[in-house]
Amino acid sequence: MGRASVSPQLEAFNVINPDQIVSYVSTGFATASYLRPNSIVQGRILGVSIQTRW
């Protein structure tokens, strides 16, 4: 019979990068929303998991 094992895992994504702008609401100079961010890449994402083997 084999032995069961449990191993915890921790993953970190985009740890050293600041929030990056992906798109802008408007790039038109004469608008009220000039260079206002529309979406950004979320930084510093952590993942925690447990892997089991039977």
Please provide a written account of the structure:
- This protein has 54 residues and is mainly β.
- The protein has one domain.
- 0% of the residues lie in helices and 52% in strands.
- It is built from no helices and four strands.
- It has strands at 5-13, 20-24, 37-41, 45-53.
- A two-stranded antiparallel sheet has the order 1-4. Strands 2-3 form a two-stranded antiparallel sheet.
- The termini are close together.
- The model has no long low-confidence stretch (mean pLDDT 87).
Instruction: Give the end-to-end Cα distance, rounded to a whole number of Å.
Output: 10 Å
Using the alpha-carbon principal axes, give the shape: rod-shaped
Radius of gyration: 21 Å
Oligomer: single chain
Profile the largest sheet: 2 strands, antiparallel
* Number of alpha- plus pi-helical segments: 0
Mean pLDDT: 87
Number of beta-strand segments:
4
List keywords for this structure.
54 residues, mainly beta, two-stranded antiparallel sheet, two-stranded antiparallel ribbon, rod-shaped
Summarize the SSE layout with pairings.
Blueprint: E1 5-13, E2 20-24, E3 37-41, E4 45-53
Antiparallel strand pairs: 1-4, 2-3
Précis, in short:
The chain has 54 residues and is an all-beta fold.
